[in-house]
Design brief:
Elements: E1 6-8, H1 32-42, H2 51-54, E2 56-60, E3 63-67, E4 78-83, H3 100-118, E5 124-126, E6 135-140, E7 144-146, E8 151-153, E9 155-157, E10 164-169, E11 176-180, E12 184-188, E13 190-191, E14 194-195, H4 198-213, E15 230-232, H5 241-250, E16 258-261, E17 280-286, E18 291-296, E19 300-304, E20 307-314, E21 317-328, H6 331-344, E22 348-356, E23 359-367, E24 371-381, E25 384-393, H7 397-410, E26 412-413, H8 418-423
Parallel strand pairs: 1-8, 4-5, 4-6, 6-12
Antiparallel strand pairs: 1-15, 2-3, 3-16, 7-8, 9-12, 10-11, 13-14, 17-18, 18-26, 19-20, 20-21, 21-25, 22-23, 23-24, 24-25
């Protein structure tokens, strides 16, 4: 039976899952230029990540800052206690009976998943009582709804207003002294249909533990991440590379590291489009899908379930992207599907056909008012098609086309047996 309520894992301070403190008057929009300046200052960080969204927005002398708030290294191993839920008799007659121990185990699995994903210094130990624990997770068989989102909250972190506090200046101008002390999360393990499954509760626990570790109430901007704000009718059940790298980056930074001072104005480059000749990076090999590709230098390359995508910028703020995937289907079917989508958006759509090293290539170009997209399709054999999708802002499309062409020319098959592996 479909669970109809939207899943709102975190909704801000009013719902107990936001970035503490009062609403700040300074308007600020995350951008890659501030991120690049920050990385130049602190050194290379694990990527891809959504680290700017994990930063806490706090008051400090001189104005507002985005600051890294996390547990100090000496706090680990962090002891936690999971309070077993009391399941009412009215729910004990369900087709599939659930024991309180199953839900406790689901939360423990979530703690173990984060520990493995981040690595040192993060380590957890289970406590036998709440009095012996730094963190307590409550499991309640009740429904919490928030009218603002017309949905159900399945998890909240208590004490958000006091979670991160700036105590004073730090050892350097780019540091402040902080106190970080979240202590309790509550998971609601029922909805109007009945009890959630332990698997669903584990997914909710992953999100809330991310907040307990330091991800502020801003959440990930990317819908495929565990730390995304609203997951609708579905639960994100596995940590993404963005989730893992964000917490790895956070715990690589000293607590109290200042990401940005919101009152400062930084001038951005006048033109984001590169005018230099296109240069390619070293080979990116994908044995899962049987291809190798050279993406442009200094573009961020990110693995996806079907291949790879590279962006000129960062995953949450970029000007152009190139995606290479291998998927089941035919050139004709993909061409019709993509052309239909382009026309539905109101784009100007045209197609052309040519040969590349003896292979037939079908190209589809869709131009809209804001974005332009070029898709090249090649028969990859055995019922597979290689798809190279490149897009940019419409006004920059012609500038980027040499990069797109060089990437297409660099794609090579590397493992003809991959299709048999994918089928299993």
């Amino acid at each position: 039976m479909k669970r109809a309520l939207a899943l709102a894992l975190a909704l801000g301070a009013a719902a107990g899952c936001g970035g503490g403190g009062s609403t700040a008057p300074v308007e600020y929009e995350q951008n890659r230029w501030d991120y690049f300046r920050f990385e130049d200052r602190v050194g290379a960080l694990p990527t891809p990540n959504y680290l700017p969204w994990a930063m806490s927005r706090e008051e400090a002398s001189g104005g507002e800052i985005l600051v890294a708030c996390r547990w100090p290294d000496e706090a680990f191993p962090l002891r936690y206690y999971v309070a077993a839920p009391e399941i009412p008799e009215a729910l004990e007659g369900e087709t599939v009976r659930r024991s309180p121990a199953e839900y406790v185990a689901a939360v423990e699995q979530a703690f173990a998943t984060w520990q493995k994903a981040i690595g040192p210094p993060v380590r957890f130990e289970r406590a036998e009582s709440a009095s012996d624990a730094a963190l307590t997770v409550q499991l309640l068989v009740q429904i919490e709804e928030i009218p603002e989102v017309q949905g159900q909250v399945l998890g909240v972190v208590r004490g958000e207003a006091d979670r991160c506090s700036v105590l004073g200046s730090g050892a350097t101008p780019d540091r402040v002294e902080i106190q970080f002390a979240p202590h309790e999360a509550t998971l609601y393990i029922a909805d109007p249909v009945g009890l959630l499954t332990p698997r669903q509760v584990r997914a909710v626990a992953l999100h809330e533990i991310g907040h307990l570790l330091g991800v502020s109430g801003q959440h990930s901007p990317l819908a495929g991440d565990v730390m995304y704000e609203v997951a609708g009718d579905r639960r994100i059940e596995a940590l993404s590379e963005h989730d893992k790298n964000t917490l790895r980056a956070l715990y690589k930074l000293p607590p109290g590291t200042v990401y940005a001072r919101l009152g400062e104005v930084h001038e951005r480059p006048k033109s984001d489009v590169r005018a230099e000749p296109p240069k390619l990076a070293d080979e990116t090999r994908d044995p899962r899908h049987g291809f190798a590709v050279h993406f442009p230098k200094r573009w961020q390359a990110i693995p996806t379930p079907s291949g790879w995508i590279a962006v000129d910028g960062v995953s949450w703020d970029y000007d152009a992207s190139i995606q290479v995937i291998s998927a089941r289907g035919s050139v004709g079917s993909y061409l019709s599907l993509l052309a239909g989508k382009g026309r539905a958006r109101g784009d100007d759509v045209r197609s052309e056909f040519f040969e590349l090293d003896g292979a037939a290539v079908a190209r589809l170009i869709s131009r809209g008012s804001e974005r332009a997209e070029q898709t090249d399709l090649v028969d990859w054999g055995d019922g597979f098609v290689l798809v190279v999708i490149a897009d940019s802002r419409a006004q920059d499309f012609e500038f980027y086309r040499p990069w797109f062409q060089r990437v297409l020319l660099s794609v090579e098959p590397v493992d003809p047996k991959f299709k048999a592996k994918a089928a299993h």
